[in-house]
């Protein structure tokens, strides 16, 4: 008796690509990583050492990888700029797709992936919002679903990176879509998840500063930004994104309901160790988002695989990724123009606040 | 050898008045509570039992109390509506004044108190922002002053009350000035304290909902509101105020600097007890702001007394109270109109965002 | 109408004496500190500056103070060696007595105070175990009393001082009775409080080391010691005392019952501040026991005063202080001899474990 | 190019056997689970569904499994009573061995495994003390190794299980060796790890009660026990083991050094969620040890595999397992007899405390 595994190819072998490739190779029992592609020679060298010995075929060209014999699914973990293009090509080649977030920094381009997927309803196409797979967020969501906090009404959520003194984020800002699209997209997705995917935005406003990286202004970005989002269903959310945390990654969320509150990671910790010295009692915290969400990514690859093999419904809809980008882009516009932006219930811009 | 004490009168014997009266009677060694006034018979009854036996003279009429022989200072702890009037009368009668916050819900009326005090520079006139006297806030402030967190850049602060199912807050909203003036005023004051009292507002925006008390809308108020304040010195603050916390009072502040962060009360606790049962590990938290800030009020009465007796500088300027009301009122307007409000550097309204 | 206050004299003006004197002077509204005594000139100088201006009469001789006109109660806060003697003299002079712990490092001498008090049942005589007046311990005790944790069965309690590199504790060990009598006495008292004052000891055993102060061995003492106490009512307690904490004072207690657990101070904190920097997230903790228990001492002076004035039952019996010293001295003996010590149900030494 | 994997067989498919089998099957990339054995039909049924489809050969007889073609290593995860026998057979069959703890409840039988392994120095034979593979314990150990806490001097460690009202532990006590051998063995192993594997015991003493399961006395066991261990190197450790925690599994360790302290799990938590309701703020905690140590077991299987394949030194010596059982058995004897037990430096019983 034999057990069939999902044959997966990984597009892109950069920071996240390597992680996805290894997760599918080693930590996704029902998947078999059969192929990987990267246009980058250094990345391919890494793959020769770490993937090829386990039978993974390497491709310099993504299109060639798509033709790999028996390939069933593709993980798109390349540069954001090619996410949508590669995802659409994979869809057209009849592959299931797990695409790193965001589909695109543009809501319109993001939508083209949804449109392509709509034509192939038998395929599993998912944009990987890692927090949806995190045990803590899921625990909070499940508790909310029981009615425990009454009606969820206010969300506070932040994605705050450790200060990287190398200035990496300045260069990165050219392509990231801005701090609300790059960071807060996770928080926005959480708001849509917890408040209901059909929550319609009424207004967005935002402020931001460049406290440590004035050069971010060249790319219409900020290193600290706060955004307010008002929904037509009587719910409100506020988001804080930052690039200058001293202690490490601080991704925190509170869901405040009419009868209670659920807080995720308001007391960050790396592990179970407390350190007592003459400065007091302290704990260390994760330094980067992957330290915090490593197992969420493993769960993601396993659940995606199970959905493909067993033809089960994906845990989140592809449309969610477009909604989140749309709100993130509006917040970024509000941040840069200083204007509050209003929407009517159909989602179109409106001149005035609807009271 | 004898030690002279500050002779104090307390105006108003409601919830806060009683506390102030007892604090000056029993917990302020250098002060002597000599008089108290209230127009309310029930309050006077209470005072007959609790204050009179210790030699405190009671007055039904505030103006009469002001003429009490030897009276040196007045604590104004009456209804907000008469704060300014009583404070000005006391100033004019040459008394030192400790006035409960806010001076008034109107910035203009608040300013009249400042104007009156300006004519009597020898008097000590202070508006009591209790958090300025709290050991935790002071510890955070002192640590910030050492440069420990670099340049303070972002403040998150919230004043969140326990849900009071009696609907008390609906009636109260008629006079409170709204949730930003009533609750967030403390957070606004903290922002001015930590960012510098001369911080000038560039814009304010706000959103709010009535999740548990729809009737608040009658009084142009909300039960949950979030406000954004942008300052001309490149700092930003965001405030959350709520009337619907399930666990108790949650007054939390984070001051985020370019090199570190200071958090006050992100892990609220009533005392040092942890309770382990089959629901997990839990701690109780203060139910009301006085549970949290009781000792801050005691410190306030003691420090005010010392400043009067020793002719020392007060720990906060009276002007601070006007600034805070001005920002609170603008946030409340932004909340109700849905509009983002802009200011020029002189503090006047402006039509457009200054980029 | 006048209110009568308890006229109190303070014996001893050393570290704790000063605190008690000031607490009765300034923070005990129903008491009036009328006298204080110390054989030490430096202490009397301090008193001239801080007590005399408020009408406190100073005495170099304790016996003279006892004759102070109208004196009603005495706080014995002198050196431990004279606690019992001074307490007995005060009792014989018909004064209410609040005596610092321990009555004596000797159980026999401690008992003489109880015997003296027994002859004057109209007097209030109390040994001040500060934790009995701490809000957290009281909260835990009250929760236990409701049956919340079922039957309390196991206690872990520790009294751990911050490392004092001056070697103070070596000199102090000559008179302290040893670490179990000096420090663990509080934990032992807690065990008797929570398990029932009539709990009878079945066995004690102990181990200890001198990790930082080898010279303590000269005085038959240790800088770290752990003791086990077994009671005849099927309950057990274990105590840890240390002189070498790096972060500060760590006085922690857990009461483990058949249905739940109550923990006091398992997460010590000085205040509500958390500090985020590149070493992680940290909080400071109290450095000395008075930082931790300051308000317990204030409550103690107020409750003692109320019991005297209103002829109410004291919150703890004087016998409790003898019981605690007896167990502490047995633990200290077990520590030094290395032997496990057994008792029969009458409290007499026994050669063998009773199984 | 091909990558060779370690061919592993799993002996025993009970609660822990299933976990080990799946860990080697799915979460140990460099291992290949090729065989599994169990005398129990129900366990074999489970294996038919969960292991056989992936090519795992099933055996009813352990000896037959040992002859499986190409088998390189055996995981002994059967009943404790057969651990030693199966381990020795595997050693004699020239297999690497990972044996669940304890090797045996008897120190003498445990030693026979060490003796067998000593004759086959080329084999990797390890007893799996899971905490040695836990990231928090490793972090604490590494911090200690840097000298951060000075000289480690005192250890407090506890293994406390959630109350299991089914009475399971009464039946289990027949075979477990008692609470100190079954539970505290982990804490004892930690003491030897942190204090040095060559730490020699000077004395042990213990007390215990049956607070919830009086029937444990039939099997010479207790449901709550506290043990003291004194070492000749001037270090002391105290252990608490319990079967009656209300909130869940509470395995906590503190390592107290002359300059600082490291605490592991003094604030247990299941995940990053805090729950706010009208009872306060609470977090849930792991319910069973596997919830807490799941990833430690995965690390264990991966590291054992790497040591076998790469001929690297195992992270802990087999002798450690005998030392721990020896101390555990002495504590259990002290618990039951009520006697303090002394050892000379050679490890032999001694009548008197050596001072």
Summarize the structure.
By secondary structure, chain A is of the alpha/beta class. Chain A has two domains: 6-128, Rossmann fold, CATH 3.40.50; 134-294 and 323-350, Dihydrodipicolinate Reductase, domain 2.
Keywords:
homotetramer; 355 residues; alpha/beta; Rossmann fold; Dihydrodipicolinate Reductase, domain 2; 2 domains; 8-stranded mixed beta sheet; 6-stranded parallel beta sheet; globular; oxidoreductase activity (chains A, B, C, D); Rossmann fold oxidoreductase (chains A, B, C, D)
Oligomer: homotetramer
Q: Helix fraction of chain A?
A: 25-40%
For the termini of chain A, the CA-CA separation is 65 Å
Query: Biggest interface between protein chains, with counts per chain?
Result: A-B, 45 and 45 residues
Strand order of the largest sheet of chain A: 12-11-7-10-9-8-15-16
User: Which descriptor suits the 3D outline of chain A?
Assistant: globular
């Amino acid at each position: 008796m034999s057990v069939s595994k999902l044959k997966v190819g990984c597009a892109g072998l950069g920071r996240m690509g390597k992680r996805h490739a290894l997760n599918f190779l080693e930590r996704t029992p029902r998947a078999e990583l059969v192929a990987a592609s990267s246009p980058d020679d250094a990345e391919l060298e890494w793959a020769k050492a770490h993937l090829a010995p386990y039978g993974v075929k390497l491709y310099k060209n993504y299109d060639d990888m798509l033709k790999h014999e028996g390939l069933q699914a593709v993980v798109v973990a390349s540069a954001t700029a090619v996410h949508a293009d590669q995802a659409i090509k994979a869809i057209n080649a009849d592959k299931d797709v797990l695409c790193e977030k965001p589909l695109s920094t543009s809501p319109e381009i993001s939508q083209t992936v949804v449109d392509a997927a709509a034509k192939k309803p038998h395929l599993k196409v998912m944009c990987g919002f890692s927090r949806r797979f995190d045990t803590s967020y899921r625990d909070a969501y499940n508790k909310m679903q029981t009615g425990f906090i009454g009606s969820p009404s206010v969300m506070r959520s932040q994605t705050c990176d450790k200060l990287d003194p190398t200035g990496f984020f300045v260069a990165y800002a050219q392509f990231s879509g801005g701090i609300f699209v790059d960071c807060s997209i996770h928080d926005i997705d959480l708001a849509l998840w917890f408040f209901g995917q059909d929550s319609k935005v009424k207004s967005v406003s935002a402020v931001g500063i460049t406290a440590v990286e004035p050069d971010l202004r060249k790319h219409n970005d900020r290193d600290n930004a706060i955004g307010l989002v008002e929904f037509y269903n009587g719910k409100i959310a506020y988001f804080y994104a930052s690039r200058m945390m001293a202690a490490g990654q601080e991704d925190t969320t509170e869901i405040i309901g009419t009868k209670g509150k659920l807080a995720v990671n308001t007391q960050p910790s790396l592990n179970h160790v407390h350190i007592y010295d003459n400065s007091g009692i302290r704990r260390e915290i994760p330094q980067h988002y992957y330290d915090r969400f490593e197992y969420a990514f493993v769960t993601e690859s396993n659940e995606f695989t199970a959905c493909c093999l067993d033809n089960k419904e994906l845990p989140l809809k592809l449309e969610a990724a477009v909604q989140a980008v749309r709100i993130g882009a509006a917040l970024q516009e509000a941040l840069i123009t200083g204007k509050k932006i209003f929407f009517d219930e159909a989602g179109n811009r409106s001149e005035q606040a609807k009271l």
